[in-house]
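Extended Data, record Diacylglycerol O-acyltransferase
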Amino acid sequence: MVTRLTTVDASFYFLEASNTPMHLGSLSILQPPRSGLDYEDLLTRVENRLALVPRYRQRVREVAFGIARPVWVDDRDFDITYHVRRSALPKPGSDEQLHDLVARLTSRPLDRSRPLWEMYLVEGLSKNRVAIFTKSHSSLVDGEHALEIGQVLLDPTKTPPPPTEELWMPRREPREAELVLDAVAEMVARPSEGAATLRMAVGDLIGTAAEVAGNIAAVVRTAAHTAPTSPLNAPISRNRRFAVAKTPLADYRAVRDKYACTVNDAILAVLTGALRNWLLSRGEPVTAFTTVRALVPMAVDSGVAERGVSSFLVDLPVGELNPVVRLSHIAHATEAHAKQNRPAALPLARMSGLAPATLHAMGLRVASGLSQRVFNLMITNAPGPQSPLYLGGAKVLEMYPVSPLLKNQTLSVGLTSYNGHVYYGLNADRDAMSDVDVVTALLYESLEELLDATT
């Protein structure tokens, strides 16, 4: 019995374009132990954990004539060395060189004839560090049944548990005639499936992704009009720039304690200040009423021992000069959303703890169910563990998300809190937003401005 891609998975698969590859990335900076962390160590480590993410050994097989959604089939020619790769920077490699490499790797679509993921061990970083960059297609990770490989690769201690013995044998791949007969039988039994497949064929992502989350309708109701005109929205190329910022989590907690808001409110206020000054640096007209509309998928508690992903549209007051007033506007908006939209959230049924990369994947699914005309950019905020994680004895020092760009959106902002810091990953179009480094510099200034207001 084959497993068919869900409607949402198939939407991501079919509607990917050369200038909008739909994979999520994760960049981790590690400090190897004295014994080191080389390519063979990583290869063994990944191979020992693949049983926990079986879809990472499967590829997508399309059905003849497009009469049904594709299916997942075991890759009989699976080659771990194709997916886990090795790269190096000229020693001593700088962080800027690493970010350029990540931007180039992010720009490249994944090979559809193989399982849809890649991992790179990047050596040569200064201070004896190494980096691991992972990219997984959005159709591969749903956060509930199919997890992101980073969720099973890292451990809370330096000494990993012993590997589980596993002999993997690929299942027989179905013949074309079998797939066609199954598809016809499904269309007869469930005619709505045929309608969904037709919508995908004509590019109706909103219609096919409507099953993603019950809160999409609530989000759409809040969008009485389209998003404001902004340089954040323009045709994009196939090339990317990537920039990061690392800030202390304690700073946001200080703002929270001073103004009785949430850490997420403080983060959004800092981003608002940075975007305001970025617009001014470009000579864009900024009035007291100028806003930037953000879609903010975020983790929520939806009940006892239940977690989920909810999302809301918030107008970031970039026209407001006072950082405390900006924070107040955002805090009131998020509080109103919490009161009016009690938890219609995409469930995280299989998650033990919060895995940032998986949460970012689910946030993207929420965003893709909406027309990009109703928001200017997506900001995903995924809380991570506040104690160190390790990979084969190597300590994870920093952790940056790399969220994909949606159509006509020049910037995507991902955030992950980990071990006492908040890590910003800014993925931008290389042509339309060549000055993304300016935004990261302004993030530090905006945070400092908000902190000054707390004293």
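Summary. The chain has a mean pLDDT of 84.
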